[in-house]
Amino acid sequence: MRLSDNIKCSLVSWITKISIWKFFLLLLAVSFVIFLVQSVLPVFSDSHDLHRLAGEELALNGRGKIPSCVSCHGLQGQGDAKIASPRLAGLHPSYIKKQLEDYARDPLKTRAFVEPIARDYVKTPRTYGDLTVFTPGTRYDPKMNGLAKLLSAEDRHNLAIYYSKLAFVASPKAYDFETLERGEDLALRGKPEYGLPSCDSCHGPGGQGFGAIFPPLAGQPVTYIIAQINKWQAGKRDNDHLALMRNIADQLTDGDKVNVAAYYDNLSYSVNSE
Ligand code: HEC
Ligand code: HEC
């Protein structure tokens, strides 16, 4: 008898020794284990998901001196109007990463000043790259500056991936008709008589954001939108490409800020959700 016949023989006799239903149970158990391994493997083999999970861990629990992000940005990254903290859920990952770099940038290295940043924009130093002029910007904020300096490049990457994938559904707030109408006029038409373009022409239709450069305005807390425009006007935020946003902010009145922020707070909007 050949060796393979031997193996066949012993397998048949083994199967007949244990009853058929036990054999089926065994098959069931084996397929269950295969199913488990298959469903768990992709989580660990996809590096993108590894970054997201590491970002989630840092966002929810902090690490060492780094506080958790959820304490100020909300459990779903929805922001907090009470402390003018922005929504992070669903923002473009490159935008999030850039903001964290800008908060962390040592102003001395870029020869720009954090407070006050030179009011005369012509004096702000520029870096010239291929076909682009990039301003190495800074963002002054007592809460975020110190925190951002503690983050490594990998932390920033992980947090950016985590927050960009979070779902967000806006809960539109009610405002009086006149405020909304004025806000809408600015958002959709701008002030052509003064050469001021509409907000949506850069921030995308419905203020939903456009790529990595133009962040969404829809779904951002009213207090946050107003605070940011104030910071540009005061020279405390100086990190927009080509001063695109600074030139807009400089032309807005206090009334404009309130109206346009209310308009965006009144819009229905969702991202990453079905
Ligand atoms: C103590 C409260 C607090 C904590 C903790 C905090 N933030 Fe912030 N964050 C803020 C506030 C307030 C702002 C708005 C600051 C400004 O005016 O520039 C902000 C702004 C930001 C922005 C800019 C968003 C935009 O739309 O431009 C990013 C990105 C950000 N935070 C990420 C994080 C991450 C990631 C963590 C956790 C590692 C974190 N924050 C922890 C309060 C906080
Ligand atoms: C010419 C293009 C342009 C127009 C028009 C424009 N913006 Fe912006 N805005 C930008 C850019 C670019 C940024 C991002 C700056 C950065 O990289 O930090 C920005 C950022 C902002 C932010 C900060 C968002 C955040 O998450 O931190 C607010 C608030 C804002 N714009 C409000 C407005 C309003 C209100 C209008 C209309 C009155 C408007 N913008 C029109 C280019 C524009």
Q: What is the averaged pLDDT score?
A: 83
Helix share, percent:
40-55%
Query: Biggest β-sheet: count, sense, barrel?
Result: 2 strands, antiparallel
CATH architectural group of the largest domain: Orthogonal Bundle
Q: Could you give the count of β-strands?
A: 6
How large is the count of helical segments? 13
Listing every helix as H and every strand as E from the N terminus to the C terminus, the arrangement reads: HHHHHHEEEHHEHHHEHHE
The CATH class designation of the largest domain is: Mainly Alpha
Radius of gyration: 27 Å
Molecules bound to protein: heme C
Q: What is the CATH third-level topology name of the largest domain? A: Cytochrome Bc1 Complex, Chain D, domain 2
For this structure, what is the CATH homologous superfamily of the largest domain? Cytochrome c-like domain
Summed up, the domain count is 2
Structural class: mainly alpha
What does the overall shape look like?
Answer: elongated
Task: Tell me what portion of residues adopts beta-strand conformation.
Answer: under 5%
Q: Give the distance, in angstroms, between the N- and C-terminal Cα atoms.
A: 64 Å
- What topology, given as strand order, has the largest sheet? 1-2
Q: Pick out the low-confidence regions.
A: 108-121, 125-133
